[in-house]
Amino acid sequence: MRYQVDAFALGGDVVGAIDTPPDPVSRDTGGISGWALSRSSRIDRVEIFVDGRSVGYAALCLPRADIYGDVAEARICGFQIHVHPELMPADCITMQVGFVVHLMSGESHAFPPRALTLRPHAEFDTVAPSPRSAPRRAHLRAEGTVRLACFAHDLGYGGGQLYLQELLRQFAARAEVDCVVRSPCDGPLRSELTSLGFTVEISPEPSTTNAGRHDQVTDALGHWLLEHEFDCVLANTLSGFHAINAAHDVGLPSLWAIHESFPLSTWSAFYTHERPGSQFVLARIKAALSRSSAVIFESEATRQMFLEYGHADSLLTIPYGINVSTIDRFLRSFDRDQARAKLGLSPRSQALLCMGTIEVRKQQIFLAQAFAEMLTERDDAKLLMVGDYPSGYSTALHRYLEEKGLCGAIRVVPVVPDPYPWYAVADGFVLLSAVESMPRSMIEAMGFGLPVLASRIFGIPELIDDETTGLLIEPNSLRSATEGLRKLLSLSDMERSAIARAAQQKIMRDHDARGYADTCLSLIERLVG
User: Fold this and answer.
1) Which residues contact 355 (CB under 8 A, 6 or more apart)?
2) Residue range 76-81: mean pLDDT, rounded
């Protein structure tokens, strides 16, 4: 429990501190947090130093219910960074963590370092994975279909889930795949998958705290795969590692779609919450990466992060796609003027859209703060945030908008089953996430011909050529975000049309779902033999 802190009680214009967590800092997640607040100027960036070395810039505008002051930003003055494991001290039991606050005014304020205790190195399960075996040659059924066992992490709305939905929809249209989908979490996508003719089963994931029970469930899963005569396994997201191991153990080929752009030890720590007994999970993930028949990534930047764990010839970059034809059909019958009027958007309003789950990783509060900087210059600007659901972060966002009087300019909308109308009414798209591989929402926005503003992280520069197919900014910088928004809103009609045309052409050429599905299906058929 944190005590309430009066931010400016000790005086000073710029205040803040590194948090001293009750438990030692994990070497795998490298989680460092704190808070910073300035009375006279907005904070541009917070630079973190470990043992005197800069390790990067923290994500900003995180909720802090324990901090109060006479400015609205007090409740969102938190910052956080996950230091890459390779940058964490290797042999020390403590580290000195300091930070520098860079203000929008151009001034910088350094805060003295604080000693944080590091968690001892975990005793990982170091059982070496067996090498890839030659998968048995599955027997294709008389009708020429492939029987596919598909493992999803969730059936709710989200980029990874919708990726799988679109892929299976394309498979169903070809009538070449007989599929059973297994997921630990039910959700609204279940009904659509069943309407496509696929069987959906809700089944819990194996234990992440007991290696014996985990391996027993994995072994049972392998027997289930054989009993139901599957030809191939398709796993979606890193959480499908147990299905890849099960397929390997019974000689089935597998295809693994990985979207996450985290260091592997960091993702494993997030996935298991570092519960006692969970150290074995990282070894099982590494084993799956070396055993999978093929691993596919939507961006080369993400693939590069995983090369050390697998075989380079089986780790493939295949930019995934969306159904471009459905966008064309939708726009032909959509009355944009009527829809905008219904939302209260005047003809002169410029509406920017942020489509994505309201969460820390996507940094909507940070976006709101940057957008607020623009309102004194562009009173015609509106921001639509679509993807709200109940959470502490959402509560903090709503509170900040109310306290700053921004509810008229920034509208927050719950998660929607059909995002197309929102793309169609918008004039531009913004996503300032701290971590993304290649977000589906951005691909859809470009398919709709929207100029996009995004952070220069991971696979996004593979999608956006700055000032040609969109606009890029530096991550975790309020100055860069504000200047990016200013540039986006100031595009001339000619500039906007040129970017929109180039973006649409790129999506049609490189990111059409039909071509992606054909590539994946050909890969599966080649693996099956």
Assistant:
1) 386, 387, 419, 422, 423, 429, 431, 441, 444, 445
2) 96
